[in-house]
Amino acid sequence: SVVTGDITSSDLAGADMLVMIQADPAAEYTTSEISVITSWFDEGNKFLWVASDSDYPDGQELRIPDANAVLEAVGSKLRGENAETQDPLVNFDAAYRVKGVSTYCSEDYEFLVAGVTYAQFHGCGIIIGYLNGNYYALEETDIDGVHVIMTSSDSGVVSDESAPAPEAHSPGEEGAFAMMVLEEMGSNYVIATSDAPFS
Fold it and tell me: In terms of pTM, does the model score above 0.90?
């Protein structure tokens, strides 16, 4: 089902999976919605997909704190970073239309990208780790239970489009930046992406 208003407990009754894309970036998740999602998630055997975005200042940047609020509420170690990934070489006709690659997918989850070479991440951000009050670049740090699924190519570039500054990377930094990450949380799973799977 598609929920276009506030998420309620009746919307989630019997659901195993919730994909949160925040089609309207100005429509913030309410305290009540986050409480409903947390209660549903705490039942166990749930799959939660939270889409963040880049910090491009046309409204996209508004999705980052809301996505992070949900990730924090359910106890996830994943966060969207206040940054944008660009790729001047491996893209769909523009640097901000990044071709996400499966090259660096965690061995444990290679089946998720079997047969997938590229996926478009359009105006995308970066997914980073958050543990004990600190932010971590996932291409540099392994966090227990966290598995990178898709990244930019090695020619990815960090861009800082609006305040605040990126938490784990520096503008101009190059590398394969995490754009789709899975976290095992007991009987639950969280996927965080730096763009939405649909609009």
Answer: yes
Question: Rounded to 5 degrees, what angle do the CA atoms 140, 143, 148 make?
Answer: 70
Question: How far is the CA of 162 from the CAs of 14, 82, 84, 127, 138, in angstroms?
Answer: 40, 8, 9, 17, 22
pLDDT of 57: 95
What are the DSSP E strand ranges found in the chain? 17-20, 47-51, 78-80, 84-86, 97-101, 118-122, 127-131, 134-136, 146-151, 156-159, 174-175, 178-185, 188-193
- Whole-number Å distance between alpha carbons of 99 and 30: 33
pLDDT digits (tens, 9 = 90+) for 40-52: 999 999 999 999 9
Burial class (CB in 10 A: 0-12, 13-18, 19+), 67: buried
* Residue that the structure tokens 């659901």 belong to: 15
Structure tokens, 156: 């990815």
Give residue-wise pLDDT tens across range 7-33: 999 999 999 999 999 989 999 999 999
Contact assessment for residue 37 and residue 12, using Cβ atoms and an 8 Å cutoff:
yes
Residues forming beta bridges with residue 135, ordered by sequence position: 130
pLDDT of residue 198: 82
Q: Which two tokens stand for residue 61?
A: 């940047």
Going by C-beta distance under 8 Å and a sequence separation of 6 or more, which residues neighbour residue 124?
A: 53, 54, 84, 85, 96, 98, 100, 179, 194, 195
Low-confidence ranges of the chain (pLDDT < 70): none
| Cα-based angle 91, 103, 49 (whole degrees, multiple of 5) | 80
